[in-house]
Amino acid sequence: MPKSKRSQRITISKSSKKLKANRGLELKQELVKKIRSRFDECSHLFVVRLYNERTEKLQTVRAHFPPSESSFFFFGKNRVMQLALGRTPATEYLPSLAKISPYLVGKVGLMLTNRSPQEVLEYFNKLEMQDYARAGNHVKETVVIDEGPLDGFQHTMEPLLRSLGLMTTLKKGIIHLLQPYTICSKGDVLTPEQAKLLKLFQRPLAQFKIKVKAHWNKKNEQVQVFDLHDEDDEDADQEAEEMIEQDDEN
Q1: pTM reported for the whole predicted model
Q2: Exposed (0-12), middle (13-18) or buried (19+): which is 145, by Cβ within 10 Å?
Q3: How many domains does one find in the chain?
Q4: Which residue ranges does the record assign to the Large ribosomal subunit protein uL10-like insertion domain (predicted)?
Q5: Does position 245 have pLDDT exceeding 90, yes or no?
């Protein structure tokens, strides 16, 4: 019996997965190469810890330390960045870099620069930018909205506020809150609804900041570690333990 000349369905899922895996490997290799290439022109390496990271605010930091002045930031998978530096003395790219790898856990990145350590530390110690907390963030204060007219809200927003849990009514085109409403309490982990209300009522409870976690000096091959343990760092500590366990299993 002759073969059918009709169009036949060809499964390419395996091929797609293979292509994605190859592309992922290429991206990791590119990151390793990019990091290592900057050691030729930079004398200092910093591990920087990000708090409440925001892309637009990170751009401000990048502008202060531009590539034209031999300052470079790298953010990627921590294990890939560890690979670029080397995890052991036998595999480290330059002397003492393996001592930096254990600190590449949590929400961190690498900064390579020729700026002096004093200048870098002073800048980051002063860096604090307010922003709105997002869902999943822990809040450190209680926010209560008093009953009465809500200034700054158009009458068309009344259904939205009611859908977010507020008891409201319209009086002569003005939204009134019928009873005090607690948006969040100190220690809460924000829900999406709470985060939206905080933004609507213009209550920024988050702070974008960057702190130096560790420093490597190319000249003397010395490593300096900074103690950053605080409430915000507990999640990073947990992630560090999980990553170490995964590495041991692999």
Answers
A1: 0.76
A2: middle
A3: 2
A4: 133-201
A5: no
